[in-house]
Design brief:
The chain has about 290 residues and is mostly helical. It contains 13 helices and no strands. The longest helix has 27 residues.
């Protein structure tokens, strides 16, 4: 039987400060709803950039609410809430890339979506295509792919052979390796990747750290500061949703920069990490007329 390692609370460990959740969440929700309202008006505009921003923002909002729900419901699931924050960081990386070259990268993102859908259809045809009962479903999916290709204005080669002609949309590690953004953005994303994404990715892949935090969450009597592990998951959700909202506002200029700076000020007064990210990127970004 493996012997547990018990680490007692040291004398230097102080009680964490308190964040007034309502003071942060209310303006976050107001900005989120305001940005979505503006983006929805642009659904019919040329290109897909604003449509994709709407999709990322809507999905990020749902993820943030799911994180909160996992914390406040009884029983609580803080380890799973922490892991969900990876979704927000993935969205942040994609948004930062899209805002670098909105037209070119938005087209790439959607073309990658066509490739993924085509590959799924190809697998289904190979496995189920001989069964006549599956023909209506497969025919409908084929029609959808044709309409998708037409909307994206794919070439004949891209439509028929996307595996060879269309690249996947990159994950965060690939975004950094491919140097898809300017040097300032790249430095910022590397900071997020090194300090945040790597750890949460380890947890979500259920490597040692992911297994360990699950066990840790199940033993609240061993926590130095009861409730902190849970509240840290919500704080992380707030932080990265705030980053996402700030990126969208900086790109689109809808007039929410002052309200976002207010939230950054509150969050930074409680968390040094939030101060660091604000100084590194968002202080200038929410003032600068060019994202």
């Amino acid at each position: 039987m493996m012997e547990e390692i018990e680490i007692k609370k040291p004398e230097w460990s102080k009680e964490p400060g308190q964040l007034d959740f309502k003071m942060v969440n209310q303006p976050l929700e107001e900005v989120k709803e305001g940005l979505l309202a503006h983006l929805r008006k642009l659904r019919e505009s040329p290109g897909s950039f604003h449509f994709l921003l709407e999709g990322f923002l809507s999905n990020s909002s749902q993820t943030y609410k799911a994180i909160r729900k996992l914390i406040v419901e009884d029983p609580k699931y803080p380890a799973q809430a922490h892991i969900l924050n990876r979704v927000l960081i993935d969205a942040l990386f994609s948004i930062v890339v899209l805002t670098e070259k909105p037209e070119e990268y938005s087209q790439w993102y959607e073309k990658a979506g066509y490739r993924e859908t085509w590959e799924e259809y190809d697998r289904e045809v190979k496995r189920y295509g001989d069964n006549p009962e599956n023909k209506p479903y497969l025919d409908e999916k084929k029609r959808f792919l044709a309409a998708f290709a037409k909307r994206l204005k794919l070439s004949a080669e891209e439509e028929a052979n996307p595996i060879q002609k269309i690249d996947f949309w990159p994950i965060p590690s690939q975004i950094l390796r491919k140097s898809l953004v300017n040097s300032q953005k790249e430095a910022f994303l590397k900071e997020v990747y090194d300090w945040r994404y790597g750890q949460i990715s380890e947890w979500s892949h259920q490597q040692w750290g992911g297994m360990a935090i699950g066990m840790f969450a199940d033993k609240p009597e061993a926590h130095w500061h009861p409730g902190k592990f849970e509240s840290d998951a919500v704080y992380t959700g707030i932080l990265f949703l705030l980053m996402i909202l700030s990126e969208v506002e900086a790109s689109c200029k809808y007039g929410f920069n002052q309200k976002l700076k207010y939230v950054w000020t509150i969050l930074g007064s409680c968390f040094e990490e939030a101060q660091d990210y604000y100084k590194m990127r968002y202080d200038n970004l929410l003032n600068d007329p060019v994202a």
